[in-house]
Predict the structure.
Amino acid sequence: MKRIYVNEEYCIGCRLCEVYCLTQHSRSKKIIKAFKEETPRALARLVVEEEGPLSFAMPCRHCEDAPCVAACITGAMHRDERGAVLCDEERCVGCWTCIMVCPFGAVQRSIAGRKAASKCDLCYGEHTPVCVMHCPNEALVYEERT
Amino acid sequence: MSLNLLASEFQVVRDDTRCIACQVCVRQCANDVHAYDAESDVVYSDETRCVGCHRCATLCPTRALTIRLALHEFRPNANWTPAALYNLYKQSQTGGVLLSGMGCDQPYPVYFDHLLLNASQVTNPSIDPLREPMELRTVIGRRPGRVEVTQGPEGLRLETRLGPHLVLETPILFSAMSYGSISYNACLSLARAAKECGILYNTGEGGLHPTLYEYGPWTIAQVASGRFGVHPEYLRTAAALEIKIGQGAKPGIGGHLPGEKVTADVSRTRMIPEGTDALSPAPHHDIYSIEDLRQLIYALKEATNYEKPVGVKVAAVHHIAPIASGIARAGADYIAIDGLRGGTGAAPTVIRNHVGIPIELAIAAVDQRLREEGIRHQVSLIAGGSIRSSADVVKAIALGADAVYIATAALVAMGCHLCQKCYTGKCNWGIATQDPYLTKRLNPNIGVRRLANLIRAWSLEIKEMLGGMGLNAIESLRGNRDHLRGVGLNEVELNALGIQAAGAA
């Protein structure tokens, strides 16, 4: 399946991926409104990690052998027909086991109540995830790798 | 500390109804213009440090930023301009030579903008380059005065030994920019783009990074007064060698790469200690005459087994025609002339703005002189120094150049916004810097694509212009000044350019 990969040597740490991810997962999907009017503010589902000049965006890897899916006590964390790992928020009870088992720290608590899994959904319905589309230096790519 | 008399050059206008305090501008500005105040959740800007590079405004996701010229207005004075006053304030504060990057930005006449091209109407047909073949291939190097052939049993045999040549798919080369003055990613972009387009790039005085040796067939290796990075392998790898005598931005003076830009990698490539200033002397200390130049030309030819063209690059200055004649007679295979507006990573502002002559006049004078002396065929002429568009390429060739060198245009293609602060090493576009936080901003894959696009687009436009003139080969345009007419030029200028005024029969 196509996944989001990062070429960290070209990640410039601008965090535009976070800005556009947040916008995409806001209610209005409008950038200024998402930031200035919507409360609580939506969450970006990927985080840019930085140390010194090295930086890279860290979205969910949609692992083949996903620990979060195996660990989920209700079956909320599941794999869809594309192979993407998604969280069914209806079934999530907020036990946060997925957060603990994710080796990449790619799952976060959602902003609404106790529900857990706010994570990358590969921008379901979009041709290309918005973080990839708006990465100004093509550090993020969306492609099939073997 | 006494009062700083300098005011900010730019205004940073932030539209608060659009700013989402995402801090992209904060992270992108190497000059620390923008700062985020977490307590108030607001981004503030201190424009005193803004250089007008537009990095923040270009990356701002809500287009909340506009960079404007600061509007401090002095009492109007046509003589003491604001620029003159600020230079005096700066100089009296620092006591140093004022530096600038890029080429001369003063309002001297741009002769390219006073030249117009011809097109065919009725009496000779124009050619559609989309339907008919159009030759842009250009050969750089010495041509024989006559060709001797003998009749052998298998047909004609060429007796004349042809000199080493460079073959370009289009009459454009990337001009000298050293590793050190520009980043590794910028060098790599130029090298890969040159390979992709079938043209050449030039190492400048920075030596050749080991990973760029594979682009040798598309590389011109420069030998300048500091001899940085020159060793046998360097000479053997390149397709051609170039002795740099002068540069259009700073004729008559040497180079200065500040120690901050001499990182471990740059120091290895240049073969100088890390962190030391790389100072190129003003003259080559072994060249004090045309005869000395001839010695170096032949030393390089000898070192490379007479297999590579050796060129000489000079700045366009007074008496450029006899200088070029001397260079041709010294045995150079090509002469590169860099005009008044040629760029640089660092030059004293006063030199950049006041020394040299425009490239248009230099091409015309040199081509004319070499023709008159009957040695034009012995040497190719590459013109540089602010070639801004394909029209400038066509005009330069019609004036007599064989090909053109572009550097500023190539940098602009890679993102340069001509803020002229290359010498600070804080290039926000990741080009003229060695700072690891900044160099990664230029993704060479994007750089190559944009450079190749530029060369492709210019080549298409050149073909269209040639076709319009009824020519089907760039060779037919070379020195063909009948295809040029001058507008708004006086008699002296028209004569210097060797063209007629627009409207002439």
Notes: Chain B has two domains: 10-96, 173-477. Residues 336 and 343 of chain B are 14 Å apart (CA to CA). Residues 173-477 of chain B form a domain with the TIM Barrel fold (CATH 3.20.20.70). The radius of gyration of chain B is 24 Å.
